[in-house]
């Protein structure tokens, strides 16, 4: 604790801000906003997918894209985590200087150019990044008929194993 302030030291402390009245105001008894997004998907009340990822503010965006890959595009767990992704920066960052970059969209270079050109034509600030540059790296476990299927994102040397 920082003296008698009630503020605990930790890596997420940087998510707090010094703006009075802000939901993430730095003061005793407050908990900083966290980006952790472990996810469990159920079907008919039974678990079908378990997934999570590191990646700061990109976690929710990455997991949503992986979920869509699994459910809407019928990809395997490995295909879903390896598919190219995008990341918006149109929000106040939770970390460091709390930067806000309106209209900014990062697209991995594996996304076809014709697709990447469309948001730019609509006025977004598009940055084409490296082929495997998205900062998150989900892992997925698919549970089906007593068989487990795993997927691990190579972007950050993730792996999955089980028995």
Describe the secondary structure blueprint for this structure.
Elements: E1 39-43, E2 46-52, H1 59-71, H2 77-82, E3 86-88, E4 104-108, H3 113-121, E5 125-129, E6 139-144, E7 147-152
Parallel strand pairs: 4-5
Antiparallel strand pairs: 1-2, 2-6, 3-4, 6-7
**Biggest sheet architecture:** 4 strands, antiparallel
Oligomeric state of the chains present here: single chain
Class derived from helix and strand content? alpha+beta
CATH class category of the largest domain: Alpha Beta
Number of domains: 2
Order of helices and strands: EEHHEEHEEE
Question: Descriptors for this entry?
Answer:
17% helix, 163 residues, 23% strand
Task: Please describe what this structure looks like.
The chain has 163 residues and is α+β, with helices and mostly antiparallel strands. The protein has 2 domains: 1-34, no CATH class; 35-156, Glutamine Phosphoribosylpyrophosphate, subunit 1, domain 1 (4-Layer Sandwich). Helix content is 17%, strand content 23%. It contains 3 helices and 7 strands, in the order ββααββαβββ. It has helices spanning 59-71, 77-82, 113-121; strands at residues 39-43, 46-52, 86-88, 104-108, 125-129, 139-144, 147-152. The strands form 2 sheets. Strands 1-2-6-7 form a 4-stranded antiparallel β-sheet. α3 links the parallel β4 (104-108) and β5. The radius of gyration is 19 Å and the shape is globular. The mean pLDDT is 88.
Task: Offer a quick outline of the entry.
The chain is α+β, with helices and mostly antiparallel strands and 163 residues long.
